[in-house]
Amino acid sequence: MNRVWKFLHVFVRPPSSPIEWFALVIAVVTVTGLGVWGYILYFPNLPSSVKMYDVVKLNKNWTDEERQKYYHTSQGSQVMPYDWFIALEQPNNKQLFQSNEYLTRMRIIPDPNPMGNPDLLPIGFAKDDPDPITGVQNVGLTCAFCHTSQLTYHGMGIRIDGAPGIVNFDTFLSQLVVAVAATVQPKFTANLFDSGKFDRFARRVLKEKYSQQAAEDLRKQVIAWLAQKVKQQADQLALKNTTASFGRLDALGTGGNTLYRLLANNNLRALDAPVTAFPLWYVTQYDWVQSNGSIRQPMSRNIIESVAVNASVVLPGDPAKNDRYVSSVRMKNMWEMEDTAGKLVAPTWPEWIFGPIDKDKAANGKVLYGQYCSKCHSPQLEPAPLCGDQIAIRNKKRFFMLRLFSVDEVGTDPLDATNFATRTADASAIGLGNNAPGPQVIQTVIGGILRRGFKDLNLPQATEDEWSGYRSDCWRAPKAYPARPLDGVWATAPFLHNNSVPSLYQLLLPADQRIKKFHVGDPEFDPVNVGYVNVRIPGGFTVDTTKPGNSNAGHEFRNAPAGTKGVIGPELSDEQRWELIEYLKIIDEMTPALAAAKNQPPSNEYGQCWTDPQYGACNAASSSSQNPVPSKISGVN
Q1: Low-confidence stretches of the chain (pLDDT beneath 70)
Q2: Kind of pairing, strands 480-483 and 556-557?
């Protein structure tokens, strides 16, 4: 696929005038005819669809209504006009793009439940309200797109809400563009392959308003959309990216690119730090989240997620119109989804499916966990509200600390953390200069969207505090990774922040004994090694841990001098590894920790608030909705 986009990139350099925009559109239409069919004929490499005889849902904490809202409530993402998506066919046949057989090949999960989903969109897709900027009603992606897992085991499906899935995000976007290109291809190639494709699409979209003129107007709109998407994908693929594939996405890089490119064309960077999605159980209880522990407030976290998947936002804006930071972000929906996510608990190991737990092994594993893992991963409550977090202080709220470990200490692939901490951007358009620290640009923009949204909604302070998760919008940029509690860790494979280790067994080996290449894309679960099966399948993907961003080093148990980078404990015997794995299948530390926290008073040692000894106080942006000025972000050089 990269070859096609790089070929198209020759034709879609940044246009500088209306004439060049017109030439761009003509070039795209001309090239798509042969380019699309060349791709379909020579790069049709998708895995087989996923079939199962039944699906069991492990999450029993949600009602059916709550589950459906989580799957299909919009957060403001704008992928393409909704009617187009519903009407679009697959690139090389007459079947609809959104068919289950097709989308499961990208490991997108079907949803046959029509409750709140009359068009039977797959999990993680939503029909949004009309875009406040364009007025168009779009289909977009929800948090469930990445944060829902569906394993298979001997023909049975196992749904785990809140778990990281294995959806192939980049391939989905590419296939969407290819399908649109096949729909509006020039007549000279359409006649060779399928001359009726666009007419069928137009009749589905226009319905009773169909006419030849209306169809031609629609074709122009679709071609303009296509030209923009081809340019965006070609610009990105011209860089030295690391292929993310199933279950991974360079989330921080993608969010940055989506936002920064609105400020200047030269702000794109390679996406070379793919990471897995964060499991959502207990996430509402944590102090800082994201793969690098950079974001404190849930609402800000959800806003940047929405922006990353193409929420619209006015940047830099027109002072005369006072439109800066107007966006499609749906803050009320985000609060409701966060509240729903707060009901999730870690999934219980289903013994009736995967086999019973060996209680003696698990008991020995619990001892090993206490010796080698507990000091980093066991839940620990903040001793007092964090200094500088005025929302937490006035509501007397404390959260469970995800302790951070520097990339030099933990020894895992550093790119996700260091890219975020060191990236700069041209933000002259919003007054931050042409070499502004990226994290401060993000805090400024996301803070602007946040405050603009609250101002427009005119909420009372108590409601703003509740919607903010009782945390101020503090940001930091540590060159470090958090160690979260391991409840439900069995359901989060592959492992490490970048999915570079396929199973728990491999994770407990010394790094030089871990396999350097393994296969992903098959949703079949391996309950022995605890991870997905390592099987090459047609259309699957091979993770090469020698590629940038893919390192499987660090976080290892081996015999080495104290202080050796990446070594967290002595080498385990094979028997000890299996004992530890058995315990990690059933570990449950957050349940008693949450119960204890309800009656635990703040420490008198710190008074009203405490300051993190390593990263200092909270640093929320100013309250100005038009030009919030960020404080110094810890970790940014």
Answers
A1: 1-44, 621-632, 636-637
A2: unpaired
